[in-house]
Amino acid sequence: MDEKLTFETNFDAPAGAAVTVSPLVRRVVAANRGPMTFTGTCSYIVGTGRVAVIDPGPDDAAHVEALLRAIDGETLTHILVTHTHRDHSPAAGALAEATGAAIVGCAPHRAARELDTGEINLLEGSGDHTYSPQMQMQDGDAVSGPGWTLEAVATPGHTANHLAFALREEKALFSGDHVMAWSTSFVGPPDGSMADYMASLEKVRQRDDVLYWPGHGGALREPTRFVRGLINHRRQRETMILNRLAEGDRDIATIVRNVYPSLAPNLTGAASLNVFAHLEDLVHRGLAGIDGPFSIEAHFRKL
After folding, report:
1. DSSP tag of 170
2. Given 15, 39, 177, 232, which residue has the most CB atoms within 10 angstroms?
């Protein structure tokens, strides 16, 4: 992937500022910069007059106030949520209370299945159990306002309940954390599923969107080519994991050290869960074996 051709390499939008990024879209970045959130969560305002907000962001009163300032004099009709990680959905309640807007979008938070992830606890990646939508959108459902239509595109994988939203009038996709240009997406059990994530990548690759607005970082252009590169990257990663199993690595901690030799210590937990997600998929596809039940502490082997 030639990243310089596909996304804003120097993206560093000031937190709290409402920036017009297209005729129908304004972006407000939250002040929650971090290793899992890049420069902060991107909240998007769609339309003028009667508007929608996509991903209202973390539980941060200053960010809610920034969104309210940006839509002062307008009517907020819908608050759409891509998924229920704590950097995306918690502000929905405060924003709805201030405006009377309906919270719509993904289903409430749920783990995809029961899996033992040990002591790994990723704060920004943990679930928001306060989220309570008035309407759960399914694939193909849409909400609209003057001059804009937002259609739900089911994209499970990063989380079990992840949705993207297609802005039909601009052939743009608000991709949440499913596809981001600054980093590959985190896929960690039990919320995330590598099999679902790969299927969702293939799904969006076949769409005709010309632009993605991700949950973190700048706009992604030439998305079809970029997503094809992401699919290839994930397949290369699973080959590396299978090669480590063939070399005798048995546990996730050892695989992570060998697959990510220069990894920053604060990203070890995320990398471990990503490897766990790959191994779960490889076991289900009959390419790897596991001794005992699925667990972050399990031993694996190449078949």
Report:
1. G
2. 177
Longest dimension (CA), the chain: 63
Write out pLDDT tens, residues 238-264. 999 999 999 999 999 999 999 999 888
Domains and CATH numbers, the chain: 3-230 (3.60.15.10), 231-302 (1.10.10.10)
pTM as predicted: 0.92
Cis peptide before 190 (omega within 30 of 0): yes
Let me know: does 295 contact 115? Beta carbons within 8 Å.
Answer: yes
Give Cβ neighbours of residue 157 (< 8 Å, ≥ 6 apart): 178, 185, 187, 192, 193, 194, 196, 197, 198, 199, 200, 201
pLDDT tens digits for range 156-206: 999 999 999 999 999 999 999 999 988 889 898 888 999 999 999 999 999
User: What is the C-alpha to C-alpha distance for residues 56 and 46, in angstroms, rounded to an integer?
Assistant: 12
CA 293 to chain centre: 28
Q: Any idea of the CA torsion for 130, 135, 141, 146, to the nearest 10 degrees?
A: -100
Please, how many CA atoms are within 13 Å of residue 173, restricted to the half-sphere of its CB?
A: 29
Tokens of 11: 């993206």
